[in-house]
Design goal:
By secondary structure, the chain is an alpha/beta fold. It contains twelve helices and twelve strands.
């Protein structure tokens, strides 16, 4: 395990022109995924978490496409490659997708083929990437189902997705994602559709597999409790930007960005409101549309700490506020100085 990133994302942008204007779900993402670590990516719905996951595998949904930035994959096994520059449907990208970087989707029922058995779908992965024969592919698929603790793995090999429970389908998808031994696993809300008992089992399974296989994992979730239990570092997203990044301990102990503080204060805690009937704290407003271009800080319309003439004028950049702890908030001198140095004053673009 090393702190050197296996994937390094710089200034990543994803967009598409619509009849209402330019959609920009990702607006300059910087993110490192260190070897052998689990990194959490959190934020409200609509912040760009799932789009980040898809961009890493170059599978952005049409008409979205990567419009800028780099995604450098450097696993030490091959020369570094910029995934954002590869043809999404080309041979080079297909060879990476699934074999070196794999993904677990949020809802396995829609991600798995309903007309092929679980075994055939896992077997196809290893036949394509590992060039195994059918007999060897079947043996490997059953071995993978065993590894993810699938009950009666040999019998489940011939089952269709609709024959399995939600938890079993998710185990099957994990087995498929790991079938070719990827170095990086992107898990996009892998437990959202499951009940809390199965959620705990799947998260425990992912932690065990990550430790056993030494994988790098990007865990995308809106559940801060999951982040606290399973990750080493966390990045917080808002409107297509990373607004805070730190070790998990730092983030939960001393959140810097008002958005992160609002997310954490909205989490219910056992016993914290005993005998009181007032509502839980909430953040006002919602995440703006990906069409919106705001002057200044993207969060300032919802921020209770926003300073008029500052937060609505100067576009903040990410800067290190404490060792290993960066934020995108003008309330910190380090960020303000870096933002002014970059002349990051922007004017909003009209939205038709």
């Amino acid at each position: 395990m090393t702190s050197r990133p296996i994937i390094s994302v710089r200034n990543l942008e994803v967009g598409a022109m619509s009849r209402h204007g330019m959609l920009r779900p990702l607006r300059g993402i910087d993110l490192d995924l260190p070897f052998g670590q689990t990194v959490g990516l959190v934020g409200e719905s609509g912040c760009g978490k799932s789009m980040t996951a898809r961009a890493l595998l170059n599978i952005t949904p049409a008409p979205m496409r990567i419009t800028g930035g780099t995604i450098i994959l450097d696993d030490g096994k091959a020369p570094p490659q910029n995934l954002s520059a590869l043809d999404p449907d080309g041979v080079a990208m297909r060879a990476i997708r699934g074999a070196r970087v794999a993904m677990i989707f949020q809802e396995p029922m829609t991600a798995l083929s309903p007309v092929h058995t679980i075994g055939d779908q896992i077997g196809e992965m290893v036949r394509i990437h590992r060039k195994l024969g059918r007999r060897e592919a079947k043996a490997h698929a059953i071995e993978m189902l065993d590894m993810v603790s699938m009950p009666n793995a040999r019998q489940r090999y011939d089952a269709y997705p609709f024959n399995l429970s939600g938890g079993m389908r998710q185990r099957a998808m994990i087995a498929m994602a790991l079938a070719c031994g990827p170095d990086v696993l992107v898990a996009d809300e892998p437990t959202t559709a499951l009940d809390v008992t199965i959620q705990a089992q799947i998260l425990e399974l992912l932690q065990r597999l990550q430790a056993d296989l030494g994988m790098t994992v990007l865990l995308i979730t809106h559940d801060l409790g999951v982040v606290a239990r399973t990750t080493k570092r966390v990045a917080v997203m808002y409107l297509g930007e990373i607004v805070e990044e730190a070790s998990t301990i730092q983030l939960f102990d001393t959140p810097l960005h008002p958005y992160t503080q609002g997310l954490l204060s909205s989490v219910p805690r056992l016993g914290s409101r005993r005998g009181r009937r007032e509502p839980l704290p909430t953040m006002r407003g919602t995440v703006p549309s990906a069409l919106v271009e705001l002057a200044g800080c993207a969060f300032h319309p919802r921020c209770t700490k926003a300073v008029a003439g500052l937060c609505d004028v100067i576009k903040p950049v990410m800067a290190e506020v404490n060792p290993g702890h960066s934020a995108r908030c003008l309330l910190y001198p380090e960020v303000l100085v870096a933002s002014k140095r970059g002349s990051s004053v922007v004017q909003p673009e009209p939205v038709s």
